[in-house]
Amino acid sequence: MNLPNMLDAKKRDKNAVIDNYQYKEVKIDESLVGKKFFVRTYGCQMNEHDGEKVKGVLTSQGLIETSVLEEADIIILNTCAIRENAHDKVFGFMGLIKKMKETKPNLLMGICGCMAQEESVVNEIRNKYKYVDFIFGTHNLDNMISVINERVTSGKQNIEVYSVLGNVCEGIPEVRDNKYSAWVDIILGCDKFCTYCIVPYTRGTQRSRKIEDIIEEVKGLQKLGYKEVTLLGQNVNAYGKDLYSDKTLADLLRAVSDTGIERIRFVTSHPWDFTDEMVDAIAECDNVMPYVHLPIQSGSDRILKLMGRKYTVDEYIDLYNKIRSKVKDVSITTDIIVGFPGETEEDFECTLKVVNECKFDGAFTFVFSPRENTPAALLKDDTPLDVKNDRLHKLNEIVNKYSNEANQKMVGNVYKCLVLGKSEKDQSKFMGYTENMKLVNIISDDNVIGKIIDVRIDEAKSFSLNGTHVDE
Ligand code: 5AD
Ligand code: SF4
Prior knowledge:
Layout: H1 6-10, E1 20-22, E2 36-41, H2 45-60, E3 64-65, E4 74-79, H3 84-103, E5 108-113, H4 119-128, E6 134-136, H5 144-154, E7 158-160, E8 168-170, E9 181-185, E10 187-188, H6 199-203, E11 207-208, H7 211-223, E12 228-232, H8 249-258, E13 263-267, H9 276-284, E14 291-293, H10 301-307, H11 313-326, E15 331-338, H12 345-358, E16 362-367, H13 385-408, E17 414-422, E18 430-434, E19 439-443, E20 452-460, E21 465-469
Parallel strand pairs: 1-8, 2-3, 2-4, 4-5, 5-6, 6-7, 9-12, 12-13, 14-15, 15-16, 19-21
Antiparallel strand pairs: 10-11, 17-18, 17-20, 18-19, 20-21
Helix pairs in contact: 8-9, 12-13
């Protein structure tokens, strides 16, 4: 048993040596070989990718994945802690599994991911949710089999969560969700400590993978037929800072570009660490896609300061314009939080002003949600929730107007799309992404899955496009 501790999670030791290590296989208890497992993942792309590792480790031990919940012998919830509603979803789902356990007493249920790193959540589960069989955290995913084995042999709830700086485990088995587009971690954790954000506590210190390990992974993916890699990190622009004195994301992008893989993406960017060299690398490497997700969070300098974002609106706009002018046909999306503690109507108007100026291709918008142990959770917050929701609504209307306008401009033109599968809404169509990350539902007579094809855009909506496959 090892419980998370939010104070330990906050510590940063600049002199600590954070060694990479190789995944070590642990055999699963024999009673579980051949059993079926179900994994549900919440949250960001990084967590999606962790979900692929959870599946990979279980599969490597002879368990079989099922997408039918009722068939499962082991259910794992790979959770997110970013906002309260992510919590609510998980606790809701846990209730359902409790019911299933009444008729299936050998069913095992585990929790991992960011919620597993939260002290209050784990204490609550320990005291009130005894039917949860095991919990492991983001720092010991590679050792999940030991955690499960311990639960099986002891017959007791087993919690193994560490609040440590973290290191990098290479070579964890993975079962990837898509055959043509793959996630590749480049930097784990985060050291930025934006005052509203729980991630630096749940995912530990910022630590980069070595360039050669990343390149090896990308080359391996290429051999398997992957056309696209998305380089992942909570703040990819900080890549290398903890590891190299002379290498940054710009060098990494160029090195990945040299592998010749067709498409390279990267998320998420932080304006603070975004250098001119990085903008140049994106602009100059043909296979680095013209798409940047650049969270602004607020359009008010006063609020940005309270958020600890370390840039001003003017600095953000300068960077934004630089990217727009240097990277051909780039699309830029953002994240915005409304209702941060103390946000006045005037602050909110500043956010609307920036959105009107930047005309983002899209934005993910959120109402501020206080998170355990973060400084912003302690700030006085006297804006009523309905006012915050009104602001969100107003913001979304403007955001959607600009996404729609950006999409309308594409109608009638032909774009290269990487087709990833069948369209979710209409199985007779395909779905793919343009180079600048627009989702397109595509009509084609051929099976074009896994191919990069020319698509003429016929119709534009706020969140997607409709198009037809045309001959090159
Ligand atoms: N409340 C609301 N939104 C948040 N985000 C991060 N933390 C919070 C919070 N406490 C948003 C930010 C971030 C995105 C992933 O989630 O906009 O960029
Ligand atoms: Fe959620 Fe953040 Fe954890 Fe991703 S890193 S799963 S967004 S809390």
